[in-house]
Design goal:
Elements (H helix, E strand, L loop, with lengths): L2 H13 L4 E2 L6 E2 L4 H9 L4 E9 L4 E12 L2 E13 L10 H6 L16 E6 L2 H10 L3 H6 L5 H10 L12 E8 L4 E9 L1 E7 L6 E5 L12 E7 L9 E4 L3 H12 L3 H14 L5 E6 L2 H7 E6 L4 E12 L19 E9 L2
Parallel strand pairs: 2-3, 15-16
Antiparallel strand pairs: 1-2, 3-4, 4-5, 5-6, 7-11, 7-16, 8-10, 8-14, 9-11, 12-13, 13-15
Helix pairs in contact: 2-4, 7-8
Length: 348
């Protein structure tokens, strides 16, 4: 046997290391090797990985199966939660399907028995996309992007989608809190949420205690405090706006200054929301009222601000134009220690 043939055989052995042919279902088991998964899918072979991952926030270990199967010129990626068990302190693994969903849908932790053995199937266009989806798992973005379906998606939707929050997952997206003290100050910020805080930066724990500069710089690194929350109820004001999608950018430029935001805040608001608001004919826009915010997302700040502006929007796409009575805008005066917040809910 010549050296070229021997070398080719060795290369093949290396590529297939960790991949075991499943004799009954004809699916190649790549164990936890995503490169093997990619290689097999690229060559038209169905393959799977079995991944054991830690959900730190729930103190659980999830064992899941992710299968990639070539179908015509596309690839089907399926996710299945095999089992869930109590986590031990020494367990080092950090990613999971249920853990990803629980970040924006905390109520899933009370329904874990409904998740096991359920399957989600997503369709992608390349082996590379299949590999990336397998690595990063199910999330709000991936479910929407790849039009995922299956009984796992049905169960997640039943758990996470309520009549008050028709979108998936339900929650208030990216409220950003800007702090502008008159002088460099130690400031304590807490959020009394009627629901769950699902994300925060910096870490929230029992509240934030930060140092803020008059120019808004927080702890020498942040422009704003960031959190997301899932609320237990939603109450919308009667007044609002209906805006053509093609005019959204201009509408924000014209309206946000009147509502009290400065240039930096407007730029950061648009950078986030113009990506979130996918194309539609029109958008219904409302601003959650102060009474609702005080009862469901109360900000407790010490020392007490002289000016506080809270703009949490409700966005809903529409095919046809609807009639809404527009509110009268009264531009706030930013005086003394000023706190600004913007965020929103997207109803799909």
């Amino acid at each position: 046997m010549n050296e070229t043939i021997i070398f080719s055989i060795l290369i093949g052995i290396v590529i297939l290391a960790g991949c075991t042919q499943m004799p009954f279902d004809n699916i190649i088991n790549c164990n936890e090797d995503y490169e093997c998964l990619y290689h097999q899918a690229s060559n038209g072979n169905p393959a799977k990985v079995i991944v054991t991952e830690k959900i730190e926030s729930l103190s659980l270990i999830e064992r899941s199966e992710i299968t990639v199967e070539p179908v015509n010129i596309q690839y089907q990626v399926s996710f299945k939660v095999i089992d869930l068990k109590e986590m031990k302190k020494e367990d080092p693994i950090t990613k999971s399907i249920v853990g990803s969903i629980s970040k924006t849908c905390p109520q899933i932790i009370n329904n874990l028995n409904k998740i096991e053995s359920k399957v989600a199937i997503c369709t992608v266009n390349s082996a590379e996309e299949a590999k990336q989806l397998a690595i990063y798992g199910l999330s709000e973005a991936s479910i929407k992007q790849y039009n995922c379906a299956g009984d796992l998606i049905d169960v997640i939707t039943d758990i996470c989608v309520t009549s008050d929050f028709p979108n998936f997952p339900p929650g208030v997206k990216k409220p950003a809190i800007y702090l502008y003290p008159v002088e460099k100050s130690e400031i304590e910020v807490k959020i009394d949420v009627n629901g769950f805080i699902t994300k925060a930066k910096p870490d929230y724990l029992t509240g934030w205690k930060v140092t803020a500069e008059p120019n808004g710089l927080i702890d020498n690194k942040y422009d704003y405090l960031f959190y997301e929350a899932q609320l237990n109820n939603l109450q919308l004001p009667k007044e609002g706006w209906i805006v053509e999608y093609s005019n959204l950018n201009n509408w924000f430029d014209e309206t946000l200054p009147l509502l009290g935001l400065n240039d930096k805040e407007i730029t950061q608001f648009k950078r986030y929301w113009m990506k979130e608001l996918t194309e539609a004919n029109y958008y219904e826009i409302r601003i959650l009222g102060d009474q609702f915010l005080n009862e469901n997302m109360d900000l407790i700040i010490n020392p007490k601000p002289d000016t506080i502006v809270r703009l949490n929007f409700y966005f809903k796409p529409h095919l046809d134009k609807i009639e809404i009575e527009e509110p009268t805008i009264k531009t706030p005066k930013r005086t003394g220690f000023t706190v600004i917040e913007w965020g929103g809910l997207l109803d799909n």
